[in-house]
Design brief:
Length: about 230
C-alpha cells in the first residue's frame, strides 16, 4: 500500500507526472525544522521541482541519476541525468543536510493517492561524493553490477553477413530467462529493440536479423535480461 500522509522533508524521483508517462519529476522539500545533518537552509515547505520529458517504454531499462550538491552557502544545485545524458539542473535553497529522512522508499510514495511504481529496479546506488558528467556517462555505459550468485551477461560473438547485411549475436544467458537485444549508433540511445527471445541455456543466439542501421559506419548492441 502507499503512504497515508504528506511529505515534510523529501527528495522524490517520480517516473511520471500523474498518468503522463512522458513526463518525470525530481523534487525536494524542507518543512521539518529538524536537520540532523546540520543544514542551514530555509524551512519554508516550498517544493523545489525539476520536471523533464522523456518517453517511457515498457520492458526497457532506464538509467536515472540525481546529483544534489552544496554551494557552501546553505543552498545547492540539483542536476538530473537519464541514460547518461544531462536533462538539466536547477538551484536549490537548501541541501541534503537539511533533510530529516524518516521513510526511505523505492517504488512507493508517501501520498495516499499515488500507486506503486509497477516496475523493477536492477540496481540502486547512493554515492558519498557528487558525480560529474563523465562519471554519469561512464556509469551508464558500464551497466549494473552482477548480483550475488548471478553470472555476468556477456556478448561472446557477433557475426555480420555482408551478403544479406544481417547480424547474428551470441551471449551468455541463464535457462528460462527472457532477453531483449537493442542497438545504437552512438552508445547513448539504445531505444531500438532488435529482437526479444527466451534463452536456450547458458548461451543464446539471436538472429540472423537485418542490420538495424544500414549505411552507418558503426553499430553497438546491448542485451538486457528480464
Amino acid at each position: 500500500m502507499t503512504g497515508a500522509t504528506q511529505g515534510q522533508d523529501y527528495y522524490i524521483c517520480s517516473a511520471s507526472l500523474g498518468t503522463n508517462l512522458g513526463s518525470q519529476r525530481h523534487a525536494i522539500k524542507n518543512l521539518d525544522a529538524l536537520a540532523p545533518g546540520g543544514g542551514t537552509g530555509p524551512v519554508d515547505g516550498d517544493e523545489e521541482a525539476f520536471d523533464f520529458a522523456n518517453a517511457n517504454n515498457l520492458n526497457q531499462e532506464y538509467h536515472l541519476v540525481g546529483v544534489w550538491t552544496s554551494d557552501l552557502n546553505g543552498g545547492g544545485q540539483l542536476t538530473v541525468y537519464r541514460d547518461g545524458v544531462k536533462q538539466g539542473s536547477r538551484t536549490t535553497t537548501f541541501t541534503p543536510r537539511d533533510i530529516n529522512d524518516i521513510n526511505n522508499w523505492l517504488g512507493r510514495s508517501n501520498w495516499t493517492a499515488d500507486s506503486y511504481l509497477h516496475g523493477d529496479y536492477n540496481e540502486f546506488r547512493i554515492y558519498r561524493g557528487a558525480m560529474n558528467d563523465a562519471a554519469v556517462s561512464d556509469s551508464f555505459a558500464a551497466g549494473p553490477d552482477v548480483g550475488p550468485g548471478e553470472a555476468a551477461l556477456e556478448i561472446t560473438d557477433i557475426t555480420h553477413n555482408k551478403n544479406d547485411d544481417t547480424f547474428t549475436l551470441t551471449f551468455s544467458s541463464l535457462p528460462g530467462r527472457f532477453y531483449y537485444v537493442f542497438s545504437s549508433t552512438d552508445l547513448v540511445d539504445f531505444s531500438n529493440e532488435v529482437e526479444d527471445l527466451r534463452s536456450t541455456g547458458l548461451e543464446t543466439t539471436a538472429g540472423p536479423f537485418a542490420n538495424p542501421a544500414p549505411g552507418s559506419s558503426r553499430i553497438f548492441f546491448r542485451v538486457n535480461e528480464e
